[in-house]
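A sample follows:
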Amino acid sequence: MALQSFIDSASSIPVIDGAKELKKSHIVNGRLIDPSNPLCINAMDAVKNHFKPTGTNLKINEITTYLSASSLLHLLDGWVYLSHAIESILKGDNGIPVHLGYYAELRASMSFLATEGVGVFNFDHLNIGSNFTVSKNPSIARQDGTHQFVWNAIEKWSKSSNKPTLDMLQAFMVNGKTFDEWLNAFPHATLITGSALVMRWLAQWNFDVKSYRDDRQKRNEVSYRPKRITSNTGGLNLHSVISHLSTFWELFEPEQTNRFHLLDKFLLRILLQNLYKSLSPTIRNNNSLEDLIKDTFNNLGLSHSSSLIKFLSDNTPISHPLFTEANNHAVNPTTGLLNPLSVVARATLMLRIATGNVSMIYSKAGISKADLDFLWDNFGIENGFWQNGNIPEDFCDMWEDLKEYIDEVAEWGAKKGTTLTLAELYEDYKIPGAMNFYKQFHRAGLWGIAI
């Protein structure tokens, strides 16, 4: 079986079934998964033994429940890596955040693959199909360890003829409507092939596998080579860093029905413009994009918002720092300096996809936030989000706690100007306290899951 066939044959259906089993048999007992599951004890050995002629076969429910549980846990770890990468940047480092940001990318991708029915286990990887048949990764790919396999698998997924389905659009929402609802309401959308459209949409803002592989190479350099032996370790401009990170935070602001409402508006803009470009010249000559978007609002039963219609109709390249940084290299080609914000931006976008997929898996399994309060409470206490027993009823409420500190740091950085130094940050009696909250980007992972 070639790697493309291996990826094509994997399915999220058994993963949803596994999540249902988690709720039925384990979550009710205050645990996410059966601790006696061989994949929990020693995953790599369990997978090896499963495929040995004389080995012990894993039960199907052990595989499906593990993929379901690991998709969520990889995701939470990915958000933590992102937050620590940002913390390292705010401490003036430019090498460590490349290392941590790359692992945020990797864990987000492993979470995503798990939701798609692909388990990553060092050199022995498996998939599970819609008929609940388990397969081992092809022999050539068995030479690939975790890192190489993940990026090869993501590349094959992004080029699959059947993988980027319209179902994926259910993970994104604007004005209380999922992207598949926006697509179905868009005039003439039935003339467009769904998977091809989703593939083009994803390629425009994520799934640039070459960048992820380049990030891995830079991760190797900053992790294993002496940092100051080259000239690419110049200090970061702290004023610019705070300015960029504050705009990243803006994209994470939640609304009740839209957990990443501004970020998803940018992504909807990309989707609708792809839709429009896919229409025939005749249709485009007779209809402006703005007119079709107004018709889409009507079809969805939404009142016209002139500002949102103007925003979605704007066909100029997106200039928001998150998207521009995501298109930059980990090493600035002009200065030769490391640019950790580019890695952080790519990790953020991959985490957005993985968060949406995990949310869909758990929602389809009927798992609610309250079902997992035992998990959230431990996670929040470990990361200093709240005291024991003070878990928020709605994770969106955490935004109100954060916004004051985000604004405080952003305003302070802007007033200090472009010559702001790390020493000034440390010496200010007030800002280090606000910074403790400002750097906690992994809070967004909780309200983003939205179950």
